[in-house]
Amino acid sequence: MVRIGIVGIGFMGMIHFYGAKKLRGAKVAGISTRNPKKLAGDWSSIQGNFGPRGSRHEDLAGVAKHPEITELLDDPTVDLVDICLPTEQHAAVAIAALRAGKHVLVEKSISLAVKDANRMLAEAKRAKRHLMVAHVLPFFPEFAFARAVIQTKKYGKLKAAHFKRIISKPTWSEDIASLEKTGGPGVDLHIHDTHFIGLVCGVPKQVYSRGLTERGYVNYLTTHYLYDDPDICVTCSSGAICQPGRPFVHGYEIFLEKATLLFESGTQPLTVLTADGKSTQPKLGSGDPIVAFTAEIQHAVNVISKGIDEAELSGELARDALLLCHKEGQSVLNGKAVRVA
Question: Which fold has domain 2-134+293-307?
Answer without folding.
Answer: Rossmann fold (3.40.50)
